[in-house]
Amino acid sequence: xxxxxxxxxxxxxxxxxxxxxxxxxxxxxxxxxxxxxxxxxxxxxxxxxxxxxxxxxxxxxxxxxxxxxxxxxxxxxxxxxxxxxxxxxxxxxxxxxxxxxxxxxxxxxxxxxxxxxxxxxxxxxxxxxxxxxxxxxxxxxxxxxxxxxxxxxxxxxxxxxxxxxxxxxxxxxxxxxxxxxxxxxxxxxxxxxxxxxxxxxxxxxxxxxxxxxxxxxxxxxxxxxxxxxxxxxxxxxxxxxxxxxxxxxxxxxxxxxxxxxxxxxxxxxxxxxxxxxxxxxxxxxxxxxxxxxxxxxxxxxxxxxxxxxxxxxxxxxxxxxxxxxxxxxxxxxxxxxxxxxxxxxxxxxxxxxxxxxxxxxxxxxxxxxxxxxxxxxxxxxxxxxxxxxxxxxxxxxxxxxxxxxxx
Length: 407
Ligand SMILES: *Cc1c(COP(=O)(O)O)cnc(C)c1O
What we know:
CATH superfamily of the largest domain: Alanine racemase
Shape: elongated
CATH topology of the largest domain: TIM Barrel
CATH architecture of the largest domain: Alpha-Beta Barrel
Mean pLDDT: 96
Number of strands: 23
Bound molecules: pyridoxal-5'-phosphate
Strand content: 25-35%
Structural class: alpha/beta
Distance between the termini: 50 Å
Number of helices: 11
């Protein structure tokens, strides 16, 4: 018999108490990762922010509020979640590729410490909401043209993504900000990609920002910080070696910045929460179709969209089952009306309906990307820690999926 636990809580107990699918976050793992980042980066004077889009619910904001981390939000919804969790405004900042009027107003109202300008229009739009007496702090996101792939990077000239100000416009944009006394340019920002497993593009990104920061200071602007974004990659699953040595990476950055007047900052999302998350499913049926064995679970693309969106592979294990058979190939599939295959796995020959499966490393970009496709309710979220459990998001019932419909 298989009778596993998450954060010291038996999976059977979690499923019986809260139902499935269920998002389970081991907060001890989150704290461990935060400690790792603070020891490597914080100790070297590099500020660490958490990219809220990876996973943000009120209880997560509460947890983060008790740490030295900053919080990067990129929508009003994320900002409000931070506020509800008691996260201090002075440690939050606002990203977003195309901010709405209400989002710019939130920046002007100082519900965050600063906003990160992502397009030229935002400069004047924000300046109109601010006053000369109390200028609003901003950073400028520059697209340094560095495109990070898993093991290499290229400089594209900055034309391949919608994010940030292209390099060829950077100097002009800095001058436009300098001309507006309602804004104070306090730093530059550049985020070059996600799931990067080599530090070279990240170090090159720092080098690429320095000349722009120097140019801004030469205009008298108070640029003091360079934020290198997130993107720190993680291993495929428990037991695999970690692709990035945080200490060595932090040391490289600190050494590169030592001869400059700039403080550094980073803002990982995935690397802080992915490992802490498990998605608990119950098997509904096992089907043999053609040469394949489908193990169909009670969730899928609605609560776990990354496999279908970009071929992400999460490790999965049978965590509660009476199966005793040999491992054999199985396709894990969701129950939505799409071909929402979750991935290919080895599962016991006698895995059957009622068994529990845990998808690991699903703390990031999983719950935050969930949807109501097929009018499935979104799953509940439970924090576990050292044998205790606490529900922090109530799952949606089927009735609730039509709660905003007007008839
Ligand atoms: C998504 C994003 C991050 C976090 O990326 P991870 O890959 O989760 O570390 C940080 N900064 C910006 C601007 C982002 O868009």
